[in-house]
Design goal:
10 strands, 10-stranded mixed beta sheet
Length: 161
Amino acid sequence: MTKIAIIGPGAVGGTIAHDLLPTFTHLTLVGRQSQTITYTESTAPNTETIINVTAIDEFDDPVDILFIAVKIPQLDAVIQKLPNFIHEDTIIILAQNGTGQLSRIPHKHVFQAVVYISGQKRQQHITHFRDHQLILQHSPSTQQLQHLFSNTQLDITLVEE
């Protein structure tokens, strides 16, 4: 059983959750407060998925894989909460716009993703437009992720640089 958490219930985090939930039932989408969000694909606007969001202050169960999909100004608050989310072997993926944040997270398995997910969030509704891809640097840990997620909608692409 692989435990996964995604911090950030916006367009990127919500899409990652939507892509993984059918396969990984031990997945938690985490935000500032507990709520539900509605997810739709722009190509199928009459098909909605309801995704539960757990408040970050209510989460204290270390996970095996942690996606951080918050804006860079919110990263400091998330870093303070990391001890509640990780154990020694947790794989952390920064799924944000921008780079240069890896050094802020003192953990041996942390990777920056180039994010190709297009969507928008308005209030509690996410509309996904296109792409489900994260590009990661090739390593044994990211190769493990690529294999683990191979039967999901999330496309993990590995590159050498």
